[in-house]
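Ticket opened by: R.M.
Priority: normal
Category: complex prediction / small molecule

The reporter submitted a protein together with S-adenosyl-L-homocysteine and asked that the result be attached to this ticket for the collaborator who will pick it up next week. Submitted input follows.
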Amino acid sequence: MIVQENKKVHLKGLDSRNTQQWVEDLGLEAYKGRQIRQWLFKKLASSFQEMTDLSLWLRDLLAEKAAINHLERIRTQVSKDGTEKYLFRLVDGLHIESVLIPERDHYTLCLSSQAGCAMGCAFCLTAKQGFKRNLSAAEIVDQVIQVKKAMPNPDLLRNIVFMGMGEPLANYHPVLEAINNIIAEDGMNFSHRKVTVSTCGLAPMIRRLGRETTVNLAVSLNAADDETRDLLMPVNRRLTLHSLISACRDFPLPNRRMITFEYVLIEDINDHPQDALNLVRLLSGLRAKINLIPFNPIPGMDMCRPSPEKIAAFQEILVDKRFTAIIRKSKGDDICAACGQLSGEEGPGDKGSRKGFHLL
Ligand code: SAH
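Result attached by the on-call engineer:
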């Protein structure tokens, strides 16, 4: 039974089966559920009144029993490179950000899964603000809907990555429900091959994700030995590299898929040739693609980005050992939309970069 006393159901968070069930519990025909989902996910309706092929009394009944939440778009900043950062306000006044990244012939949307983050990574701005709360499935899916509504050509949005604020695998159920609506044919209809969940390394949840979905996995590795990783990522003190890599080795990889390993390069901390060699050893035998992310400066943090020569030398060691290793260009860093720069507030980074963007 999905209907709760005095509590409205958030329909964007229900999957196909549960929507059907909810509709039937109300005594309606099953096809009404399909109609409602069409309106929500294809026509991007924001109210029941827009659902003009449903009778008036039904629209009123739905409005009484259910809610179509939507995030309030506060601001959109556009970077020189075309990256757009969306700031949304949640019903309780908290803020989150989503980042729309232009690629050659399509767009990628980077979603937040939590307001703030509890993982405490030493190099990440989101971590500095601490954990506020988990997002609901509806709030996660609604980021896709609101950004699509703002795009001149929404069909060009093809890729979804859970690389915004928060640790998706620490908010497992809502993230899974959101993924289901993102890839469902009667939902947002994205290909499961175009959805990627990125994690700081919650090994048991990686195993579960592999059992329960067919989406891509990305792992923020950032160090190839426990000592350095303990320092950078507190999660490693309880879930060591050994448990992380063994969960990755067991992760089901259909066809020619690979696991993406993200490695933020930080000067003098994890950028030595020996670190690259350790990485080669750690990932040997894994179908792995390595994304090297030059550290994006965070105000008030004394870590630095290595020189371009050092970054290139690090990459060369990996490529020599036959790994696919690319240096990820930082997109949107002039508007603090690059990896690790999302704070969900108008922080010092925003104020310092006013020249590089305009507001939509
Ligand atoms: N919690 C998840 C999702 C966030 S992804 C995860 O850890 O994977 C955010 C990505 O940005 C991670 O790969 C992280 O390593 C990277 N990142 C964080 N801070 C950064 C910084 N200052 N510069 C460059 N990359 C950073």
